[in-house]
């Protein structure tokens, strides 16, 4: 999936009170190393700008996965652009050391700049992956990117007449979008099995795909064996799912018109960090109540941004259950309870839930709430820049300089920018405030 996010990153750049060499994955949605590109062409601004400006890598669309990129993968990245490196053993060894100490930072011009660290724009909290990135020269800049994205993607929901609430049209209790189930989404197979075990499929507007990323669910190897399923006839209980990945960038009003509560199946579930995507904000934008299958504390995360959840009307104790299977069981047990309510009680429940949902929708589309998201970015960016200014020793540039002085000929394949800076060492010293 590729969406036009450069406008968003350019807007963030305009909000910063400090220049930054911004990198992002392009096409958007990619996580390939070769798709890490600068937001704009700063090569025309000269070596001094590139050496003396802090860098920022935007990794705010997907969860941080430090181990997704091996040292071998990153070495191949350099070889891809300069195959002659393989003929120089010393150059290969230098690249290996660079990658080992700087990880993804080595993919940017910041690797030889005067700043010892690089900013990492991300959208998750309580993250061990972030801590690992910080160990190799990154400083995290948190902001909830998906909040800004969702406001753009679902903007018509603010006025859409098809989203008008009519309880008489509700024919199924739950709306469940359940497309992909590989990677961090493997828990969705267990959820699907639990829905069948509790005979909830007739109460759900839900489809199922037998294959994902070229794999059939019956032969899928679970990373977490406790999430493994025993049933292999899941497709017999649901219509086939044929939607593609771009579906999350939109909403389907008829789905909301005929269902009571959305069960949001987030990207992360069997994890400890908070990372909520546009999926969690879609029912909010559409003015619908929801239950959230996310990591423990995800409802608390939403409430920290001013949203109300529904704990006085439905059992939200699942949000505090650490065990993933038990959390799923708690969610589906509450679904089962709601589905069995007498129609009069169910109507009363809908009325109370939708009052809260309407307040959430109003908050989501308020200018003040959207401004809060960008203000948080600016605050965190400024704080991280301040930290960077105290970590500006030029250690990576100085290390290169010392090796270059010892033997300039061995660096013929090095970056032109760093080589040009070798001819202006006094100016670099001035950038470092050493003279």
Total beta-strand segments = 12
Please mark out the parts with pLDDT under 50 across 5 or more consecutive residues, or reply none. none
- Can you give the helix content as a percent range? 40-55%
In the CATH hierarchy, the third-tier topology of the largest domain is known as Rossmann fold
Quickly name the level 1 CATH class of the largest domain: Alpha Beta
Discrete helix count? 16
Q: If classified by CATH, what would the architecture of the largest domain be?
A: 3-Layer(aba) Sandwich
* Secondary-structure element pattern, one letter each: HEEHEHHEHEHEHEEEEHEHEHHHHHHH
β-strand amount? 5-15%
Largest sheet: 5 strands, mixed
The number of distinct structural domains comes to 2
> Could you tell me the mean pLDDT?
93
| Overall 3D form | elongated
């Amino acid at each position: 999936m590729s969406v036009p996010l450069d406008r968003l990153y350019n807007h963030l750049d305009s909000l910063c009170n400090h220049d930054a060499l911004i990198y992002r994955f392009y096409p958007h949605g990619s996580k390939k190393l070769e798709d890490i590109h600068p937001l704009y062409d700063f090569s025309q601004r000269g070596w001094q700008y590139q050496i003396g400006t802090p860098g920022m890598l935007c990794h705010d669309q997907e969860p941080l996965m430090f181990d997704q990129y091996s040292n071998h993968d990153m070495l191949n990245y350099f070889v891809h652009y300069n195959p002659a490196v393989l003929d120089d053993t010393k150059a290969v060894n230098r690249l290996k050391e660079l990658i080992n100490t700087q990880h993804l930072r080595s993919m940017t011009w910041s690797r030889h700049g005067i700043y010892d660290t690089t900013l990492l724009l991300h959208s998750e909290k309580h993250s061990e992956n972030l801590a690992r990135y910080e160990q190799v020269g990154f400083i995290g800049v948190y902001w909830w990117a998906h909040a800004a994205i969702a406001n753009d993607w679902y903007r018509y929901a603010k006025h859409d007449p098809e989203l008008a609430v009519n309880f008489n049209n509700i024919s199924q209790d739950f709306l469940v979008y359940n497309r992909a189930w590989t990677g961090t989404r493997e828990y969705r197979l267990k959820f699907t099995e639990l829905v069948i075990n509790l005979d909830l499929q007739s109460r759900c507007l839900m489809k199922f795909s037998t294959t994902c990323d070229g794999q059939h669910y019956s032969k899928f190897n679970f990373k977490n064996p406790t999430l493994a399923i025993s049933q292999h006839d899941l497709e017999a209980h649901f219509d086939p799912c044929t939607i593609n990945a771009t579906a999350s960038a939109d909403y389907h009003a008829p789905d909301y018109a005929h269902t009571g509560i959305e069960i949001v199946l987030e990207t992360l579930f069997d994890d400890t960090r908070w990372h909520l995507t546009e999926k969690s904000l879609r029912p909010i934008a559409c003015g619908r109540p929801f239950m959230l299958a996310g990591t423990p504390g995800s409802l608390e995360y939403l409430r920290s941004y001013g949203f109300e959840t529904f704990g006085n009307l439905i059992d939200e104790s699942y949000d505090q259950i650490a065990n993933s299977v038990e959390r799923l069981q708690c969610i589906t047990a509450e679904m089962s309870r709601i589905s069995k309510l007498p129609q009069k009680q169910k109507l009363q429940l809908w009325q109370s839930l939708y009052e809260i949902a309407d307040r959430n929708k109003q908050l989501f589309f308020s200018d003040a709430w959207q401004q809060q998201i960008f203000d948080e970015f600016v605050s965190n960016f400024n704080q991280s820049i301040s930290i960077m200014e105290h970590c500006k020793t030029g250690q990576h540039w100085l290390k290169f300089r010392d090796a270059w002085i010892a033997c300039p000929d061995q660096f013929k394949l090095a970056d032109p920018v760093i080589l040009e800076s070798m001819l202006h060492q006094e100016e670099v010293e001035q950038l470092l405030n050493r003279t």
